[in-house]
Amino acid sequence: MVSPSKGQKQTLDLNCLTIKELEKHAAVMMDKQTRDYYNEGADSGSTLLENIEAYAKYRIRPRVLRDISQIDTSASIFGFRNSLPLGVAPTAMQCLAHQDGEIATARACKEMRVIMGLSSFATSTLEAVAEASGDIPNVLQLYLFEERDHSRKLIARAKKAGYKAVFLTVDTPMLGRRNLEIRNQFKLPRHLKIANFDEDINSDASATVMDGTGSSSEPQGQKKSEAASSTRRQSSVGYHDGEKRHPPSGPITFHTHAANPTLSWERDIAWLKKEAAPMEVWVKGIATAEDALLAVHHSVDGIVVSNHGGRQLNGALATLDALPEVAAAVGGKIPVHVDGGVRHGTDIFKALALGADFVWIGRPVLWGLAYKGQQGVELCLKLLADEFRLCMGLAGTIKVEDINKDYLVKVDKSGFISRL
Ligand SMILES: Cc1cc2nc3c(=O)[nH]c(=O)nc-3n(C[C@H](O)[C@H](O)[C@H](O)COP(=O)(O)O)c2cc1C
Ligand SMILES: CCCCC(=O)C(=O)O
Fold first, then answer.
1. Theoretical Cys-Cys bridge with 108: which of 204, 217, 269, 378, CB 3.0 to 4.6 Å?
2. ipTM of this complex > 0.95?
3. The model's pTM
4. Does residue 50's CB lie within 6 angstroms of at least one atom of ligand 1?
């Protein structure tokens, strides 16, 4: 039995000893619309699957007789000693999973000493999340809107609430095609709200239903000026069906506003750096060495190698496969993080060995939330923390900084093993 790490009060749940089991428990707790929205990837879902399977291509070379009695799993981020090199990735609309939503996640993160990313499309306000996080530094994920005023206000509020960084999501210039979401006509229930936009803008968010053709149903009582501004937008960023462009309608919803096809390195990164200072500006959704070099060139503070959990470009490289070229290109100039497919403590170890400084998890936290709210998120984090600690010890490492590629081999399809 793994002994609990210092300061972690969670005890084991004998019905749920792995993230796989957590996924199964969560599946029966969620309604179909939520389960499909959370779990699916874009198109056939092959990138989502490959994100997970990529970890199995690597095996660990354990070292022995090294006195591993004092293992330190912690990692530094924004000057904070995080209990392990892992954070909770921003995921939208957590109140779909549990009534306490992002607040429950924040409380669990505080308990487990783990940093949290908050989605632009959260169902709790960023101020309430900051308060629930206590001394844990938080990150606000940004979808930078074409109407800069909305983004400007959000950034100002994050600064005031003490957020340490903004993560600009750069893999969403258009929305990926999630077929179950379209088929289910995904709709935020009326009792929930996209919480971080002005009341008047937000008031009809719950009424938007996607019809899978890029248009959405007309919310009642919509203001004319908003309709005009979003008409321009949605004509280019809804779900796409070939060449057809559809007139948009409605207030700020993730279907209408997450995607921004106009974003560019030259104009937007400089704007954001100026606007967000003194918060750090990171880019989330880098998948190539070329873009990693551009990120360094444009003086961003950090990179998250991500394909949005396989929800955007299906057919894109698994993030673990993209990581080595990004880490090599960056060469330690700025931190390189990775997300996508992390489901076990050994996955954290492998990602670090391949050059990541830190990993983030998306769906496992949503499953924890659906299973048992705050307690379920704590359980999720505890399982990964215990597995990671055990992996470090059995591999012969006591410090996160010591994990490197010498601890891994790669196994190809024919079973051929190569050193890295
Ligand atoms: C239901 C769901 C909602 C998400 N919402 C956002 C979001 O609002 N902003 C964002 O940048 N990424 C979002 N993501 C992507 C995650 O931040 C992260 O990149 C991804 O979940 C990592 O993959 P994993 O789920 O395999 O751990 C979302 C992912 C899921 C599953
Ligand atoms: C891109 C739309 C906003 C929510 C999100 O990021 C997701 O569902 O993956």
1. 378
2. yes
3. 0.90
4. no
